[in-house]
Design goal:
The chain is built from 18 helices and 19 strands. With about 450 residues, it is of the alpha/beta class. Keywords: 4Fe-4S, Cytoplasm, Iron, Iron-sulfur, Metal-binding, Oxidoreductase, Porphyrin biosynthesis, S-adenosyl-L-methionine.
């Protein structure tokens, strides 16, 4: 098993600091509590002028059993009746949005996340789709991107057939690890046959893309045990594989307190797992897009990256450029025009706002010109693994090398260490720099604390 590039463990460990994942810029930590419903309404209205397609994200917070590693906004419950009032409130949120949003705009993207969207019954899924269609008008276009996250422990072949009938054409299946010892340690017992059966049926039904989620750095994992998981996943041949870095933050996430720190792989072993992952997946024909995403060369994400149109949002990488993102549900985040807005993260607060006929906007931020320049620079770095300063200059009417002189100065040390090269006015992440792309992006972050702390996850 050959390494895809020269591996420098000492360099990786030196740069393995805490930092943002940059699913947005500014990051969540810059959102303001004095940003409320009226600011969000104004952004919705402004967005109509450009007429960009819409991307809808629906957050379903419920799951039947809490996994110990989880850091999502979720509610563990076996009471299926909680879904009915929640769907009604989602519909109320849509109704309150409509006066400010031109719903003739195409819904090019739809994503259901959680929690576990497959917590819903088939009838409830139909009900929610009907409400979304009635309020926004869902697309039947062939190139639409309608995805849902599935827990293989809760779904079966009938679920997949139903989802296809509802218009979904992409599936993301949570796997995390196939080793039974690791599964027991994270409270997620999931026999391989469950995942294989769903993948086979999804392939037979003709779903456009299948994604499997894995996590490295979980308790009891070793490079050999995770290699065994990767062998099985590669044999399943999904179009996309996400391999997330487990961030152990028990002081923030209660569920993680059930994981014993002494069971976690040490820094050296964790890097070895990452090295094994990249070598095995690239050896099997997957393209390392960046961060934690791998995809087949024919996948739309790889094509978008090659064409320079790849984007990054709260759901990860996206091939649908220039959509306005409307988030629905508790904790959901919207990116509309020049604004980020987040709903209340506590279900009771979310419900109370809607019951009072108010949008459940809890906080957010309106971007300054400087924010927009830096957001563009960071997104292009994260998506292209490169940054064209001439393109940035033309887009914003600035002299980018002068405007971003401070960021370029901060990159000089990274350039000396071989993480980035400068060719004319084009910054290019080196192969090992791609693994540390978050660190490169941090050079452009004007809002980052001088010493980013444990509020952010580690980079590697």
């Amino acid at each position: 098993m050959a390494d895809p590039f020269a591996w420098d463990e000492a360099l990786l460990r030196r740069y393995d600091t805490h930092g943002p994942r940059y699913s947005s810029y500014p990051t969540l930590y810059s959102f303001r509590d004095d940003f409320g419903e009226q600011a969000y309404q104004a952004a919705l209205a402004r967005s109509n002028a450009d007429g960009r397609p819409l991307s809808l994200y629906v957050h379903i917070p419920f799951c039947r059993k809490a996994c110990h590693y989880c850091s999502c906004h979720k509610i563990a419950t076996k009471n299926a009746r909680v879904a009915e009032p929640y769907i009604s409130r989602l519909d109320r949120e849509m109704v309150l949005l409509r006066p400010y949003l031109d719903t003739r705009r195409e819904v090019a993207q739809l994503h259901w996340g959680g929690g576990t969207p497959s917590f819903l019954s088939l009838d409830q899924m139909s009900d929610l789709i009907d409400r979304l269609d009635a309020r926004f008008g869902l697309s039947s276009a062939r190139d639409r991107d309608y995805a849902i996250e599935i827990d293989p422990r809760e779904a079966d072949v009938f679920t997949l057939r139903h989802l296809q009938a509802l218009g979904f054409n992409r599936l993301s299946l949570g796997v995390q690890d196939l080793d039974p010892r690791v599964q027991r340690a994270i409270n997620r017992i999931q026999p391989r046959i469950l995942t294989e059966a769903l993948l086979d049926e999804a392939d037979r039904l003709g779903f456009r893309s299948l994604n499997l989620d894995l996590i490295y750095g979980l308790p009891l994992q070793t490079r050999d045990s995770f290699a065994a998981t990767l062998e099985q996943v590669i044999a399943m041949a999904p179009a996309r594989i996400s391999v997330f870095n487990y961030a152990h933050m028990p002081e923030r996430f209660t569920a993680q307190r059930r994981i014993r720190a002494e069971d976690l792989p040490g820094p050296e072993e964790k890097l070895a797992i990452l090295r094994t992952t990249i070598a095995m997946l690239t050896g099997a024909g997957y393209v390392h897009i960046g961060m934690d995403h791998f995809a087949r060369a024919s996948d739309s994400l790889v094509i978008a990256q090659r064409e320079g149109t790849l984007q990054r949002n709260f759901q990860g990488y996206s091939s649908h450029a220039q959509c306005d993102l409307v988030g629905l549900g508790v904790s959901a985040i919207s990116c509309i025009d020049d604004v980020y807005a987040q709903n209340h993260t506590r279900l009771a607060d979310y419900e109370a706002a809607l019951d009072a006929s108010r949008l459940p906007t809890a906080r957010g931020i309106r971007l300054t010109f400087d924010d927009r320049v830096r957001r563009h620079a960071i997104e292009r770095l994260m998506c292209d693994m490169a940054l064209d300063l001439d393109e940035l200059s033309e887009t914003f009417g600035i002299e980018a090398p002068r405007y971003l002189a401070g960021a370029l100065s901060r990159l000089e040390a990274l350039q000396r260490d071989g993480l980035v090269s400068l060719e004319g006015h084009r910054l290019i992440a080196t192969p090992i720099g791609r693994l540390l792309i978050r660190h490169l992006a941090m050079a452009f972050d004007a809002r980052l604390p001088p010493q980013p702390g444990p509020e952010f996850s580690r980079i590697v």
